[in-house]
Amino acid sequence: MTRQPLFADLHGDIDVSFEFFPPKTPKMEETLWESIQTLAPLGPRFVSVTYGAGGSTRERTHATVARIERETDLSAAAHLTCVEATKEEINAVAEEYWAAGVRHIVALRGDPPVPGQPYRPHPGGYENAADLVAGLKKLRPFEITVGAYPELHPDSGNAAVDLDNFKAKVDAGATRAITQFFFSADCFFRFRDTVAAAGMDIEIVPGILPISNVAQTRKFASLCGAQIPGWMDRLFDGLDTHPAARQLVAATIGAELCRELYDGGVRNFHFYTLNRAELAYAICHLLGVRAKTIGREEAA
Question: N or C: which end of the chain has fewer CB within 10 A?
Answer without folding.
Answer: N
